[in-house]
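One such given next:
>
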Amino acid sequence: MVELNTWAGLEPAVMDIKTVSFLAQVFELTLTDSTGSVVDLEGVTFRGAVNTAPLQELMCSVEGGKVLFGWSGLPAGRHSFDLFLVTGQVEKALVRGAFVVSGRVMPPLDQESYSVNHAATLVLPDNTDGIILVELSEVGLVDLLSRKAGAFAEEARDHVSSVRELKEFIVQKVDGFGYVVDTATTAITEVGKSAVESVESGREEAVKAVEEAGEMATTAITEAGKSAVESVESSRRAAVGTITPLVQRAETAKEAIDQAEGRINTAATNAVTSATESANSATAAQQALEAIPQVDASGNMTLAGGLTAAGAINANGGINIPLVVGAPTDTGAVNRFYTSGLAGAVSALVQPIYLNSSSITVAGSISKASNGTLAGLTQRFSVGAASAGSNAYGSAVIPLIGPNGQFNYSSVCGFSLAVSATAFAKFTFGIGRGSKTNRTGLTMDSYSIIPGNNLAVNYGEVIDVTINTPYDTVRKGYEIRVREIFYVSSVGHWQVKTTTVFLPVGHNELMPNGLNRLIYMQSGPPSTAVREEKAALYMELGGGSANTLFKIASLRGFIAFEAGTGVSTLIIDARNEKTYALSADAGTGTRHLYTNGLTNPTYHALEAMAVNAIESEETADFEDINIPL
């Protein structure tokens, strides 16, 4: 019996399920503890729902100690869902995720028929503050199909059995796309007709006709959608995908002779219809291909009506198209309208990050300057002069605040911080959930922030950027180091990834004088077990070099959703080798949110523009560096 009071602090599992549009499917879950023992589900029920339109409840049942949940056909797109465990009057979120639905067209299954999607195991942690983990099960589809789940399983077996045999047949028999369609249409039609006629010719001939028809016809199967036509250019692969949905292996034909006539008639009808649809689709695709204007060897293209596009014309130069009087002004107004709308949409997804001026603390040879300072907006620090034979060191701890409307979770996916310095400097910030320990008065190679509570397990991160080398007159630029401290549950301890970066800038673009911003963005939430790299760190320069935006690290990033601003503290460590005072600056930043569907357009824009300055990456177990000055 599951005791829900022990689940109070657990985070639900996060899982994306890939499926095909308008295909009803069922998914199996096994609940275990950390030792692999299956959880007793007696007295436990489950409920769930798809949260995006069209809204629908998941069909849930428990059979043989397994949780089965199914859904009806969904349109293409990303649809979030929740699955809850219910005991008495108490319920707990078990799984949160999304159905990722491809837009491939599938013939519908029979009424109340479901296809198998996959199976997974949910591993419950031993303590009350962990996260439920997802492990894909190695269960075979036939094993899963052998267990009936109400209306889920009756016809699922036949949806799976003969895909590989059909693909081998097509690859061996077909050389060209046009020949595939002709061959499939003729063969399936003739097999269907001969199958119908064979019913009257005797039992043995009927059995043979069933087997032949079974190799070339009937209903859609789950894996067929994965091989559907994606483009005419994909030639043979597209042909295989088009024919695959027509196939179902009639494994039990000899044991069902009494049903032969009905099966053969159905197979013939469906085969003829499917072959006709395939031929029509192929014809339409070929006509569309032929309608595309062709580019000659010189890069020129002639369009219908006499318009000629020369190879020298490109999007950067633009094409001047004569319009009637008044049209240019009207068109320009419309374009400005849409451009303003896009700018407004981006601004709506960005929130400010301010400096909590009253809580800033300093240590060592650094002090809060009175000039260049505006409370909450910008803060200048003075780094003292070096004494004879000794450099001056100092640290500033800067708490960050700002509006971050949210409840349990925040959809933060990135931020930017305005920073610069005339002294050599290290910039450290902690991101994500979990406590952090701030430290000052250490050498530049030490860690100024480490995971808190004696390196207790959490899913936050620490990132630092160090600029402490002189200008390289041979390579013409500066070397920079980025370190990322993160926890990976699959290895059971903290790790650190060190990235070496080289910025190719001129000798008049001093660093870190030319630094303007550090920008962190991620494309989506990574898994908790693997922590694949979903984020990146960028550096924006303000000097006169040809390139001003550089990618300086690939990072793991926030898992799922976070609380608060996502970044709460910035620490600046500075070293002054001069005999006069230098400075370091911090200013307001921005906090970025996901758009619908957990997408971050800013990440993709920066990835497209930035120059990748990464030279090497190395990941090792985390060992603390804590060396006082």
